[in-house]
Specification:
The complex is a heterodimer of chains A (249) and B (375).
Chain A (H helix, E strand, L loop, with lengths): L3 H4 L3 E10 L6 E11 L4 E5 L6 H8 L7 E6 L2 E2 L5 H11 E4 L11 H13 L3 H14 L15 H13 L5 E5 L7 H18 L2 E5 L11 E6 L2 E7 L5 H9 L1
Helix pairs in contact in A: 4-5, 4-6, 6-7
Chain B lengths: L1 H10 L1 H30 L3 H4 L5 E4 L12 E2 L3 H5 L4 E15 L6 E9 L14 H7 L4 E5 L3 H4 L6 E4 L2 E9 L9 E5 H7 L7 E2 L1 E6 L5 H8 L6 E4 H15 L2 H30 L1 H9 L4 H38 L8 H22 L14
Parallel strand pairs in B: 4-8, 5-7
Antiparallel strand pairs in B: 1-10, 1-11, 2-9, 3-4, 3-6, 3-10, 5-8, 6-7
Helix pairs in contact in B: 1-2, 1-12, 2-9, 2-10, 2-12, 2-13, 10-12, 10-13, 12-13
The chains are: A alpha/beta (249), B alpha+beta (375).
């Protein structure tokens, strides 16, 4: 028997289009794009600058409204929701990692994570601290929990940002160029953490990146160019879940 | 929540210093201005505040202690008959012209004539028993040391009040005046100096209650008569100060200056918070992307404004005391009054200003757009 959740996409974008500007300055960045993402899978969205990959990520994650098309996330039409409902959906189900670490200068690594739990879930100070310390331990930052961003390396800061995205244990994790500001060694650590989120926690992970070295670390690669998806590669050997899926199909 | 605000304030203190100083400036300005005014106008009620009478009874139209009109001395009987009254006595006070010796010009002065016995109700407390003994001699007066130059005399020098020759026999300390220097003397001398107050008239009848708590009751009974107006000591003191505050329009000037101080404080604090929030827009945008409600971020900004207010006030209040002390030290007169209620009110108004500034700074949150992180 195959688990239905492995056949049903956790996140599905259907006929998505998006333009910016009006009149003569109107620029279309997405042309009728459809994509399916599955839980337990890390997908790399690649393409040259301006190909529309960040826009697609923003639409799939509920941050940017598409001009047309639908996004189904866990069976819910994301863009049929009200702003408040979508905000709650993101709070409950989405984690984000951006190119810039965007950490608060005044707060320690532990406080950056605690803040998400206390403000997002209303967790008590004690519980937030415990979970933040567990996450930092998992990220190999246990000894640096008390340090502020200025006292951390680029890789460490990005790991804190990953911790901030994953501490809620989200169903979806969206990462936009998470390794572009890092050397390859630190970049590899970051990708492995995201892989672990997908494989160990069953999260649906979508990574937007330029770096071709990431390809061998992901389950699936989707290429974009000029606002269209044009090629999808799947790495069977690295992903038992996907392998099972393909067999089932 | 508070810890993130305080941590941010402390770590990025250089960014928040202008806001804290603006709040401190506002609180200091309000406290000192009102304190100065209170201190200044408390001088006008010295004859009431520095004597022992529980009840003051004067002419019906009296609006301030220095504006008393003659009333028949016989009104004293009305008070004396009241069972709550332990003792009562007459008291003369009025403006007169002081002629400096050797044709040195004239000066408006405030003559105060009271009984001089140790238990006298109208005797200013600064007068020592020895000085009271000296004043027993008719034609002798005592002035404050700080008014010697203004009145052109010193101890044992002679002058004239309304043409009546007087001799300065001693001086007091710490008895400042606003409208005209206080000239202290006996009832008999005062009658000579204040020709309007003919024999058998008085400016006020002062009363002492057996039980001080009965003063309002006594006042109520006395005010049943339409030809007099009675007050408790506290009421008459406040009425006098309020009269001066309104008559001199000083309250309006105070209001403008305080409003200006608040406005400056509000603008600087608001801009400080606005700039600080804008500087962290990307961090807040991540939180918004993660689904953290906007009100949490707004609360953090307002919480920061609260702490800026508290820190500013904490700096301002000791500074207010320090400046008041400095004024007293250098001018030798306690001219700035800083009662607890004034400091509390200044703190409350300033804190409210800081919070409103925080609310105005919230406009910066409109710029938070999570999608901007993906561009």
């Amino acid at each position: 028997m195959i688990d239905d959740s492995l056949l049903t996409p956790a996140l599905q974008g259907v006929h998505l289009s998006r333009s910016f500007g009006e009149g003569e300055t109107k620029t279309t960045v997405l042309y009728d794009v459809s994509i399916e993402l599955f839980s337990g899978q890390i997908t790399l969205l690649m393409g040259p600058s301006g190909s529309g990959k960040s826009t697609l990520l923003a639409i799939l994650s509920g941050l940017l409204h598409p001009d047309s098309g639908t996004v189904m996330a866990l069976g819910h039409d994301l863009w049929a929701m009200s702003d408040l409902e979508r905000e709650r959906f993101r709070l409950r189900h989405c984690g984000f990692i951006f190119q810039g670490y965007n950490l608060f200068n005044a707060l320690t690594a532990r406080q950056q994570l605690e803040m998400v739990l206390r403000w997002g879930e209303g967790a008590s100070a004690g519980e937030a601290r415990r979970r933040a310390e567990e996450m930092l331990d998992l990220l190999g930052l246990a000894k640096k929990a008390h340090l502020r961003p200025t006292e951390l390396s680029g890789g460490e800061k990005q790991r804190v940002a990953i911790g901030r995205a994953l501490i809620k244990e989200p169903n979806f994790c969206f990462a936009d160029e998470p390794t572009s500001a890092l050397d390859w060694k630190a970049g590899q650590q970051v990708i492995e953490l995201l892989r672990s989120a997908a494989h160990d926690r069953g999260a649906t992970v979508l990574v937007v990146a330029h770096d071709a070295r990431i390809i061998e670390h992901v389950d699936r690669v989707v290429h974009m160019e000029d606002g269209r998806l044009w090629q999808q590669e799947e790495h069977e050997a690295r992903e038992p879940v996907l392998h099972t899926l393909k067999q089932a199909r | 929540m508070a810890s993130y605000s305080l941590t941010t304030l402390w770590y990025e203190r250089q960014r928040y210093v202008p806001g804290v100083l603006a709040v401190a400036f506002s609180a200091l300005l309000i406290a000192l201005q009102v304190g100065l005014l209170l201190g200044l106008f408390s001088i006008t009620s010295i004859p009431i505040d520095h004597t022992k009478a529980d009840v003051w009874m004067g002419a019906p139209e009296v609006s301030s202690v220095d504006l008393g009109r003659p009333i028949p001395e016989g009104r004293l009987a009305r008070m004396a008959y009241l069972s709550e009254i332990k003792r009562c006595e007459i008291y003369l006070q009025g403006f007169a012209f002081w002629s400096k010796p050797n044709n040195g010009g004239s000066e408006l002065c405030m003559v105060i004539g009271s009984h001089l016995s140790p238990d006298s109700l109208g005797k200013i407390k600064e007068l020592t028993p020895e000085q009271c003994g000296l004043l027993a001699e008719e034609g002798t007066v005592i002035i404050d040391k700080s008014d010697e130059k203004k009145l052109g005399v010193e101890i044992e020098k002679k002058a004239e009040i309304s043409g009546y020759p007087v001799r300065v026999v001693s001086t007091t300390h710490g008895l400042p005046s606003l409208a005209g220097p206080y000239v202290l003397c006996s009832i008999a001398t005062a009658r000579k100096c204040l020709p309007v107050w003919k024999d058998n008239t008085t400016t006020y009848v002062l009363g002492q209650c057996r039980n001080r708590q009965d003063a309002p009751k006594v006042v109520k009974q006395l005010n049943q008569y339409k030809d007099v107006l009675a007050f408790t000591q506290d009421e008459f003191s406040k009425r006098t100060r309020l009269h001066w505050l309104l008559r001199t329009k000083a309250g309006i000037a105070l209001g403008y200056a305080a409003a200006l101080g608040l406005l400056v404080g509000a603008v600087v604090t608001s801009q400080t918070l606005y700039a600080a929030t804008v500087a962290s827009l990307r961090e807040y945008a991540v939180l918004r992307a993660l689904g953290i409600p906007r009100w949490r971020i707004a609360f953090m900004v307002v919480s920061q404004s609260f702490w800026i207010g508290i820190i500013g006030i904490a700096l301002a209040l000791p500074a207010a005391y320090g400046l008041a002390w400095a004024v007293e030290y250098f001018i030798r007169v306690a001219i700035v009054a800083l009662p607890w209620w004034l400091l509390s009110a200044a703190a409350a108004v300033t804190l409210a200003m800081a919070l409103v500034s925080g609310l105005f700074a919230l406009r910066s949150l409109r710029q938070i757009e999570p999608a901007m992180l993906l561009r």
